[in-house]
Amino acid sequence: MTLVHDTADRAARIAAVVADIDTSAAIDNDFYRLWMGGPLPYPAVAVFAREYLARTRFTAVMVALSVLNTTDLAARVECVKNLYSEYGNGNAEKAHLVLLENFLADLLSRLGGREVSTGELTLEEPLPSTTAFSAGQRELFSSTDQRVVQGALLAQEHLAFAMLTRLYEGVRNYKPLWPREDDFHEACEYFYVHIGEAEKEHKREAVVSAAAVSRTEADFAVVLRAYDAFLTLTADYWRGVHQAVAAAG
Questions:
Q1: For the ranges 72-81, 128-137, 178-187, which has the lowest average pLDDT?
Q2: 8 A C-beta contact, residue 32 and residue 166
Q3: Backbone angles phi, psi at 216, to 5 degrees
Q4: Residue 29 neighbours by CB under 8 Å, 6+ apart
Q5: What residues have CB less than 8 Å from 241, skipping those under 6 apart?
Q6: FRET pair for 40, CA 20 to 30 Å: which of 76, 132, 241, 243?
Q7: Over 70: is that where the pLDDT of 197 sits?
């Protein structure tokens, strides 16, 4: 058994893994290019909203599973911090899923010229690629091997920051739908919470917790395999979303 030296060394090694995540197909893909390239018609935005909500509604559940399925105390503590943030630091109105639902309903209502609720987005089944993502995500986070869980969490949290910055850049294409600039920025709280502090902290916490369970070379290899598996799931998810959004537009 080859030991990976002290905690700082392990954290540095984990940080090196995620340093080039924005070059992966999970981030460098056709969907983001389409989304940021200009405004899309209502049907295309509705497809995006449906698929993104279907994917994101389970994020906090996955973080909760990371708490349950991680036995290392230091790693578990970092996961708990992440979970508390997902639930609005104790304020249900600021839970990240609530902020997302509010934004999507507002955007679609303005774009469609009628009141739209997020309940409408759940009337249609998500794409098979979205369902496959959710199933694969749950499998990783439900693993009894904490190294698998932490590898998946590492990928999820580092993808989230890159994802949300790109989604926000695309959202700015719809800024004219809000008559006052302040109203637009208030509506975008979901993005600002993540881009400002939450995801930066989640990224740091995920590095610390992944490092905590990477005590040997074998541990590190398992973490890395799970990390790569989550990247692949995410790339496939966005490929499916891109095809559906492009077809609707």
A1: 72-81
A2: yes
A3: -130, 170
A4: 235, 238, 239, 242
A5: 31, 47, 48, 51, 52, 127, 129, 130
A6: 132
A7: no
Residue with tokens 């294409």: 173
Cβ–Cβ < 8 Å for 206, 158: yes
Residue 208 one-letter amino acid: V
- Residues 41-61 have pLDDT tens digits of 999 999 999 999 999 999 889
User: Which structure tokens are listed for 13?
Assistant: 């090694």
Q: Is 114 exposed, middle or buried (0-12, 13-18, 19+ CB in 10 A)?
A: exposed
- CATH number corresponding to 7-248: 1.20.910.10
Q: Residue 5 pLDDT > 60, yes or no?
A: no
Distances (CA, A) of 91 to 15, 88, 95, 96: 31, 5, 7, 10
3 bridge partner residues: 216
Rounded Cα distance between 155 and 234, Å, is 9
pTM above 0.90, yes or no: yes
